[in-house]
Design goal:
Blueprint lengths: L6 E6 L5 E6 L4 E4 L6 H10 L3 E3 L6 H4 L14 E4 L3 H14 L3 E4 L14 E4 L6 E3 L5 E5 L4 H9 L3 E2 L10 H7 L6 H4 L6 E8 L4 E4 L5 H7 L8 E9 L1 E2 L3 E8 L4 H14 L4 E10 L4 E10 L2 H15 L5 E7 L1 H9 L24 E9 L5 H17 L4 E8 L21 E9 L5 H18 L18 H6 L3 H11 L16
Parallel strand pairs: 5-7, 6-7
Antiparallel strand pairs: 1-2, 2-3, 4-5, 8-9, 9-13, 10-14, 11-12, 11-13, 15-17, 15-18, 16-17, 16-20, 19-21, 20-21
Helix pairs in contact: 4-10, 8-9, 8-11, 11-12
This protein binds flavin-adenine dinucleotide.
């Protein structure tokens, strides 16, 4: 090492403060900034148009929760419910001034719990307005809007934004990392429809990133993942007219699982953009297995029935359950969301609104991709993997689910946005979930199952979906970002040189 050269490391201490350790060839000094005082927090609270929740507040325990119920030990120093971009900027400035860890939170669905931290959680859920331009060709959506409210707000104008199925996911997290959903083969991922966004950068500036200004920040925000570069406060999206919508579900007895997956992968590869489908192989936690495909078609039931005929013929086994039906767009989105028959207000978490009826859940997951049709041996391996979960953890429910890519998703060049996964047949997600009654031994068996899948069943070179962020993934930078990683590291270096936005899998700065 050159004499006097310094190595600077930043770690977060138990108070949520950034501790800087500077090592030179001759000395090591550790600088522990003074933690914010009660007066500092009070001053921050007084400066916000929104509100600040501290551990002493009666709502704190609920306010600290994320969607995944396995994150039980979250103890942020404070949660700021920001009411404006200026509020967000004040929080960023405060965190910098007091060297407090910072995490942005929209819907709180991060698989890794990365929208919480030991310091200041910057919650944007009050930034939830939705406004359309005069011709309803685009909409500006507050960064804290939840998907069910986005769908409902746009449907009033006969417009849609393609995005995910879960109604309580936040628009910020899903957009910044991808956004796969039932209209993605027709209209692209959510991020493909992002025209510009407003963000608060690490130095507390409010900027608009577009094709003209801060274009590299727009590029990075299309797939570079949440929490990495800045805190988004609003997104402007291209909208699409709502098409005729037909849903389908086909379920099969378990012995037909391999035939279903074999036929499905060839069928969806050749399907028109108007069709999106998944294929799920489930172990139902003591209630047997299920093999099914379901999806959404932009067109009539008659046209979908004709498309399904080739799939059903190739499977060669009669479906045990078969549904094909036209649906009103919002009814279809409610069905996809698991909210059939309940109101939009009820289709929220109880922590997201007074009328919310949905519950949090405890789960773990791992993702991978398939580039093209799998061999018969690989398909047999997938079926056996589901059966292994049932053997190892009989009361834990789990699945291997294939979400179709292709169509509009794959027509975007891999370097046109930070989202690199543009040549895939499908994303495969392994999940298992549990309840408070599940024995620890079974939860641990489920974790071992995911580890085994990652090592023995999934192709380690095919990548992983950054929105199914996976704290156990070793080579995550390459898996999430592939060849786009160096450019992301460069954007990180320029927009966040002091690494204010940091978590276990945040993008490193280029040196
Ligand atoms: C039940 C469930 C269903 C899902 N279904 C789908 C699906 O159909 N399709 C799909 O593509 N994905 C799906 N996902 C994955 C989802 O896209 C990601 O978990 C996403 O990151 C969640 O976004 P969020 O805003 O709710 O989460 P958060 O936890 O709030 O945020 C996720 C990450 O983004 C950061 N972030 C949050 N707000 C901001 C902001 N304003 N500016 C900058 N960074 C921010 C956070 O710090 C965190 O690192 C699903 C997840 C769950 C739990």
């Amino acid at each position: 090492m050159v004499a006097g050269a310094a190595l600077v490391a930043v770690a977060i201490d138990e108070h949520g403060r950034a501790v800087t350790t500077t090592t030179t060839t001759t000395t090591t000094t550790t600088t522990e900034p003074a933690p914010p005082t009660t007066a500092n927090w009070s001053a921050l609270a007084a400066s916000l148009a929104g509100s600040l929740v501290l551990p002493s507040d009666p709502t704190y325990a609920g306010d600290a929760l994320l969607y995944n119920a396995k994150f039980v030990d979250l103890r942020p120093r404070a949660i700021a419910y920001c009411a404006s971009a200026s509020d967000v900027a004040r929080c960023v400035d405060f965190a910098g001034e007091h060297q407090v860890a910072l995490a942005a939170r929209s819907g709180g669905h991060s698989y890794g719990g990365y929208s919480s931290c030991a310091g200041l959680v910057v919650d944007v859920s009050r930034l939830s307005s939705i406004s359309l331009d005069a011709g309803a060709s685009s909409a500006t959506v507050g960064a804290g809007a939840k998907l069910i409210d986005v769908y409902n707000g746009l449907a009033r104008y006969d417009r849609l934004l393609p995005s995910g199925s879960c109604p309580t996911v936040g628009i910020a997290g899903i957009t910044l990392g991808g956004g796969i959903g039932v209209f993605a083969r027709k209209y692209g991922l959510t991020l493909d429809n992002l025209r510009q966004l407003e963000l608060v950068t690490a130095d507390g500036r409010v900027v608009t990133a577009s094709d003209v200004d801060h274009a590299d920040l727009l590029w990075a925000s299309r797939g570079g993942g949440g929490g990495n570069f800045a805190i988004a406060t609003s997104f402007t999206f291209t909208l699409h007219p709502i098409p005729e919508v037909t849903l389908f579900t086909l379920q099969y007895p378990w012995p037909a699982a391999a035939a279903l997956l074999e036929a499905w992968q060839h069928w969806i590869a050749a399907a028109p953009d108007e069709l999106w489908a998944d294929c799920q192989l489930l172990s139902q936690g003591g209630y047997g297995y299920l093999a099914q495909t379901s999806g959404v078609y932009c067109g009539s039931p008659a046209a979908l029935t004709a498309l399904l005929a080739s799939l059903e013929g190739a499977i060669g086994t009669a479906a045990s359950y078969r549904f094909i039906g036209a649906k009103d767009y919002m009814d279809a989105m409610a069905i996809e969301a698991g909210c059939a028959g309940i109101s939009v207000a009820a289709c929220r978490l109880s922590t997201q609104g007074p009328a919310g009826t949905l519950s949090r859940s405890a789960y773990s997951a791992k993702s991978s991709y398939v580039d093209g049709p799998m061999s018969a041996a690989a398909i047999a391996g997938v079926v056996a993997a589901v059966e292994r979960l049932a053997t190892d953890a009989p009361t834990v429910g789990g699945a291997l689910a294939f979400d179709a890519y292709g169509g509009a998703i794959n027509r975007v060049a891999a370097d046109a946005s930070a989202f690199v996964h543009r040549d895939k047949l499908a994303c495969i997600q392994a999940t298992y979930s549990w309840s408070s009654a599940t024995p620890d031994s079974e939860i641990e068996a489920g974790a071992r199952w995911l580890t085994w899948l990652g090592a023995e069943v999934f192709d380690p070179t095919s990548g992983a979906y950054q929105n199914y962020i996976d704290p156990t993934l070793a080579d995550w930078p390459r898996a999430y970002y592939g060849a786009n990683l160096p450019r992301l590291e460069d954007v990180k270096r320029r927009y966040d040189p002091e690494n204010r936005f940091t978590f276990a899998q945040s993008i490193p700065r280029a040196s």
